[in-house]
Amino acid sequence: MIIVDKKNEFIENHDDIICVTRNDIEILKSKAMKNSRHRIRQNLHQSMNDQVHEMIIVHTVDTYVRPHRHTTKSESFHLIEGNFTVIIFDDEGQIIRKIPMSATDSSRSFCYRIAPGIWHTLVAESEFIVFHETTAGPFAPNQAEFAPWSPQEGEEAVNPYLDSLRNSLKT
Q1: pLDDT tens digits along 98-146
Q2: Residue 53: which domain range?
Q3: Where residue 159 sits, what CATH number does that domain have?
Q4: In this structure, how many other beta carbons lie within 10 angstroms of the beta carbon of residue 127?
Q5: Domain count within the chain
């Protein structure tokens, strides 16, 4: 059974066993391109109340992930396809670390885990990025704290901010 949420950003799973194929990823890429936020995820967990949430997530190069932190839980990413950089910030919004990631470039990480309380974002460097995310459940709305020094999605300042983050990857 496939159920897509109203924003077309995630696909629910109600099966006891779920497998993801290369064809499924291609379908997710197509859906991400049609989505206004340029992203989609396939839930591997069955319920928003599950204790462990696992998702296959697709972002396009245009996806803006507002810098945020999770105060009570960690998250881990395992990159399946593409290249991106995780950017870590201090409390004032200064970049303190960059973690280049790639599914195929052995000089970059392909997996990372971040502890609670760390400001972070990710910046896509390829047309698509596909990753497996694992975090603790259950899901609660507004569980991420967004960085007050970063623009909100939809604001005019998003594109210049995202460009500044991309430019920071060059140094």
Answers
A1: 999 999 988 999 999 999 999 999 999 999 999 999 998 887 767 789 9
A2: 3-168
A3: 2.60.120.10
A4: 13
A5: 1
